[in-house]
Design brief:
single chain, alpha/beta, Rossmann fold, three-stranded mixed β-sheet, about 40% helix
Length: about 350
């Protein structure tokens, strides 16, 4: 199939683009490069051993999005594009609603006009809110604690409503837990702008010397070692989940399908620090700080539906996730060049 990968130059989009190509699909990247680097493209082309078509487009621009879909004859869309920093969403909520909702609305309208029948949507476990029991199941009610999370809840609802209005539309809602890791080559990986929002890139930056220490926010949670526990999955496993979902929904009788993508096994902050210390070969400096408002003790998936319906399961270990992240960060201590 010919697949439009919106936000395909980003962290998860770039890894998924490679796996789409490896699976025999023709992947076209659409990205405005506002949060990603153009230098990722030649690296992807080297790994794929072929040119990759790239369209520079702002998907909140409806006319530009229409022109993109009209010109290319796509069979499906995988939609990663959007803003994703939780803290920034609190300080700039209107930007998050404009970009995240606007890009989805533009894509769906253009898809309808061009008869593109399938979309795989990059959602998040944040849609389960802060009071969901663990492990989290797809049928739990949705909620959110910040504007970024609400944009995911709202985009999911927009996609469901679009499917009601158009019986030919097929939608996959993929709820990620905590993507980490990097391509085994060490040439592409996570390169957050500014201060990272997530644990793994912070660990990597401490290990490579870009930061003095890691702050552990709270060590008095009701968990075995007192630190928060999360469901970390390798970005390569996550990318494989997108390819499996794309194949599943093509021609499916089910209009909207929702799958958790996670391991089902939580790892604590302290356990992750120990694993990364093993990967980089030296102890990392840490300091315990007070809990952050809104943080919860545990978040992890029930991934059994994805395994049963997609034949997908996460296979890479925490040690592999840390080793691949360290290979990427040590090869690229400052991330991607401009």
């Amino acid at each position: 199939m010919r697949i439009l990968v919106s936000g395909g130059a980003g962290y998860i989009g770039s890894h998924t683009t490679l796996q789409l190509i490896a699976a025999g699909h023709d992947a076209v990247i659409a990205d405005d490069f506002s949060r990603s680097k153009r230098s990722v493209i030649p690296r992807l082309e080297a790994l794929a051993a072929r040119p990759i078509e790239v369209r520079v487009v702002d998907l909140t621009d409806r006319a530009a999005t229409d022109a993109l879909l009209e010109s290319a004859g796509f069979d499906a869309v995988i939609h990663f594009a959007g803003l994703k920093a939780v803290g920034e969403s609190v300080s700039k909520p209107l930007d998050y609603y404009r970009v995240n909702l606007g890009s989805t609305l533009s894509l769906l309208a253009a898809m309808a006009r061009q008869g593109v029948p399938s979309i795989v949507f990059s959602s998040s476990a944040t849609v389960y809110g802060e009071h969901a029991p663990v492990p989290m199941e797809e049928d739990f009610p949705t909620s959110a604690t910040n504007p970024y999370g609400w944009t995911k809840v709202m985009q999911e609802q927009v996609l469901r409503d679009a499917a009601v209005a158009d019986p030919s539309l097929r939608v996959a809602l993929l709820r990620y837990f905590n993507p980490v890791g990097a391509h085994r080559s060490g040439t592409i990986g996570e390169d957050p702008s500014g201060i990272p929002n997530n644990l793994m890139p912070l660990l990597a930056q401490v290990a490579v010397g870009r930061r003095d220490k890691l702050l552990i926010y709270g060590d008095d949670y009701p968990t075995p070692d007192g630190t928060g526990r999360r469901d970390y999955l390798h970005v390569e496993d996550l990318a494989a989940g997108h390819v499996a979902a794309l194949d599943r929904i093509a021609g499916s009788a089910t209009q909207v399908s929702t799958w958790n993508l996670g391991t089902g096994t939580p790892t604590s902050v302290k356990e992750m620090v120990d694993a990364f210390s093993r990967a980089c070969g030296h102890e990392l400096s840490v300091e315990v700080a007070p809990r952050r408002s809104g943080d919860i003790a545990e978040s992890y998936a029930d991934p059994s539906r994805a395994e049963a319906e997609l034949g997908w399961r996460a296979t890479r270990t925490i040690d592999e996730m840390c080793a691949d992240t360290w290979r990427w960060q040590s090869n690229n201590p400052d991330g991607y060049p401009v």
